[in-house]
């Protein structure tokens, strides 16, 4: 068949703006000998090509394969155009803009070409700490408005020099329309406080002198790290606190100054050799470490670290077998890390309970020295950082580092932020009519979610809204997203909990704008979130959802946290649960695990029996130090002791019995994380074998005749667990037996429910499903039963994914109501 000239119009949707897509199209069109044009518009990229049909086919085939690294193509459609076009060449047209939807790229780690430039003494960007191109660099962290042009970013005050301007205008240059592009001469500059003559700056300083000044700053930083000092460094989305990870005194000092006494600290390395010296790294984990998102990846630490590298401080991740490593992801990080050569602590710079600092003045005031605000005569200063390294490119939007964990069934995103947000999450095509829906999410690990034209746009991790500054930042980001995506909500969704700050914000907005507000049950939102990210249809049949977390507001003002729900996107029905147990002291039970152990044990046996049989255990000794008479009166009178079917509190109770943080946890999930780290995988596999002869704890599954629910009752487990404590069995053995008992009880419940209900999928969600031991064992066993197991990979299983679930439920109910109205 002979070739002939045709005209085609090509539409590309997805993350295709601000990532070098038009220059790629331009290059491919020239190489394929095509005429036409390419432009950005409100729906993505529009391409018009004229040429031989064989060449157009080649062009279309190469378009997907050779797309820029940061591009995310959702769809490519093309159609033959009959009318005549008179293109004499191929050109890149300016952007046209009208209301529509196109994705904004996420911030991306430095590309190999930029890294090569900053390390080449003959390159004009040698040692330039803000080198970037269309393949890498800041995006969401610098954008203020749309369209995504330089004037709408925090680079607007930096006028391009002649050489940078030429690169910016050249379609064949990888810096064509790279909005943050700059160099020593025209771009942002580093500053160091306290200053020194070698690092001070003159406004008329030459590019060569600027290189020398940068070298001097890096030398000061290097020496400070060697001396064990703590440095605040302005990164992409906020300041970090940095020190030598092998200097135990420095790490302990950082914890004391920051008042972060237990929560694991993130680590940064220059390359994989450093990471591999301390951790086991799978191929999948390495791919994520090296990806443009460059998240923190939780890795299993080696039993015996590489002797060629210094031992890490034991204070980095106490009580955990995991280390959180990320690779250097900005030129500045690379320049610091490659000089130091060892692992660095790189943790968010903030005061206790506050969000990460982004502003220079605030950093200098709060990180370098904190002055007493209450007593002017108090001249004592407390330093958090010995040095503050900052720059004059403003951070428009705070973005924390993302956190992921890989396992046999894929990857779990534990915190979705830098590198991932604000990329949209593709929903099933049945949601294509969903539009202008805003979900406010939960209160802890909060996010919000927009649905526009059938796609879900989940915000970056916001933090805990209980903190006033975090709440302010949440509202600021919500306004930003509305502007960036030209979004004006017509429907709102929120959690049912009346005291959640996110719920109150939604209620205030609904009232002031006269908008409909949908309250969504917390655990239904968890399940719907996993269903949505896995592309299930809006009208998909009910699945069995298992939502295990710390706490969520249930029906009839009950407190839920260990739920089995038959759910689709429109509705859910509870069919099983963990047996509700009193939260002794209500909110205090979330902070003090011993309270949960006491309530569980009292539910299992009399106090006399416990004292007679187990009075010599450490947990019994701990109980004797508490005001048990007061606690008993509270339980008897049901005062400040609400019942909760919480999986998270069951984990806390077992941990407390094993003398793991019984008095107080320093951060959410601390006791449960330590408990998980004690599990012996080989012993667990032995316990879970069908014909295992090993003794195992029993969590009974009983049908409650009053509630008509199956209930997982751990009462029978406690005598056996306490017997093991009397026998001085190891923490590892007891932790493993507990995990096995819970896994077996969940699977027994699934089997019982299959006899009464029809479902083909089991959905796992909730913060407790971030426990790798629990989630991977359940996934494996569920699949062995011939069921499809649906879990999280794109959004967190914890409350960071709640907003997506709320939005999907709202979209489904709106569509169902609209259909019902049409029929009637």
UniProtKB/TrEMBL annotation:
Function noted in UniProt: Involved in the maturation of [NiFe] hydrogenases. Along with HypE, it catalyzes the synthesis of the CN ligands of the active site iron of [NiFe]-hydrogenases. HypF functions as a carbamoyl transferase using carbamoylphosphate as a substrate and transferring the carboxamido moiety in an ATP-dependent reaction to the thiolate of the C-terminal cysteine of HypE yielding a protein-S-carboxamide.
InterPro entries in the record: Acylphosphatase-like_dom (IPR001792), Acylphosphatase-like_dom_sf (IPR036046), Acylphosphatase_CS (IPR017968), Carbamoyltrans_HypF-like (IPR051060), Carbamoyltransferase_HypF (IPR004421), DHBP_synth_RibB-like_a/b_dom (IPR017945), HypF_C (IPR041440), HypF_C_2 (IPR055128)
Pathway: Protein modification; [NiFe] hydrogenase maturation
Active site: 22, 40
An annotated Gene Ontology molecular function: ligase activity
Enzyme nomenclature, EC number: 6.2.-.-
The YrdC-like domain, residue ranges: 215-419
Residues of the Acylphosphatase-like domain: 7-94
This protein's UniProt keywords: Hydrolase, Ligase, Metal-binding, Zinc, Zinc-finger
Name of a matching Pfam family: Sua5_yciO_yrdC
Enzyme class: ligase
Family membership noted in the UniProt record: Belongs to the carbamoyltransferase HypF family.
Highest taxon above the source species: Bacteria
Signal peptide span: none
Protein name listed in UniProt: Carbamoyltransferase HypF
Catalytic activity annotation: C-terminal L-cysteinyl-[HypE protein] + carbamoyl phosphate + ATP + H2O = C-terminal S-carboxamide-L-cysteinyl-[HypE protein] + AMP + phosphate + diphosphate + H(+); an acyl phosphate + H2O = a carboxylate + phosphate + H(+)
